[in-house]
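Bug: token stream looks shifted between consecutive jobs. Job 1:
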Amino acid sequence: MNDDTSAMKHHPYGPSRYNAWAKCPAYRQKEVPGDEDASAGVRAHEELSKCLMRKGYASDNSAAQWAANEIQMLAYKMEIDQSDGTWFINSEERIEGVSGILKGVFGTVDATWYNNDTRTRHIVDFKSFSDATEDYMPQLYGYGALYAQAQMLCRDETVVLHVLHGMARKVETVVTDAGTC
């Protein structure tokens, strides 16, 4: 977990804007100080990170607790080695592009993990208030591109993208590769 609250900030050209740009290329988000919805989303993500890092349970945020359980189940299905009692799940991982048009572009991924046996990377984005009617895959592919570049993945390395819709309690999964991202 990244305890630096500045990590929650969004890059003006980062993946969190991609789904809006897919609808309207001229989209510009205004940061509104004291925005209650944004504050609630930040709290939900902080709760999720605490749950994943086993530093507590979501106090009043059942969506975060649900998401933590779903992530752990997804990781368990992928046979993450937990022989020492810990999960190899990274939470609130900041990823940043290192070259080309992605150089300096960053985003914060809610959870990632890697399966050594299958050479498969997993990237999770939690949408705390999503009712699953909006398409967040452009954002996930953006995170995949940053992650692939930052981790110097081979183009054919498998990348699995997961969107967790908190309000709908729905998980969307797409299997792709680093080159496609």
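Job 2, same session, no restart:
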Amino acid sequence: MAGWDNYTQENVTIGGGEVPVVEDGLYDAVISEVTEPEQRPNPFPQEPGQKFYDPIQTQFRVSFTLEDPDLPEETTFYYYISLPYGITSGRGTIGERSKLHEVMTALGFIQPDKPIRFKPAEWVGTKSQVLIEAKAPANGGEARCRITKVMARRGRKPAAKPAAKSNLRERLTRDVPPPEEDP
């Protein structure tokens, strides 16, 4: 076991800081920082029948600085993204339903018929829009402003999404005329 000498530090600061308070809404933003990935125990239990499960969750933080003249300069929000199992396992895959896929698509890093380059450190300076809403944490507590969605910046189209799969009812009732009423 390591001794306290490994943890002794001078000029320790209090972390966490204040979360900016802004009106709920859509804001232009630029990525100002992308942290190195960090690992922690996965807070979600393995689901029965779940094929891929990693007991360690690896995530990184993306800092979005809002570009709004009505807000104080350097108003920044953090957005945490977990690396999916397809990346942490070395398979080199990103699931279409992952938050990482959603963000990379909005930022323009996933486009049809183009190879995907996964290098988050190069995202710094990328412009986007972020939806900010006051929400309480899932485990309870006080509502705080947080980024709930990252989107393409106005004037730039995000990568095209694959055609949505329709459910059976939609497929069966499509182009079927409504039943005629009895006179």
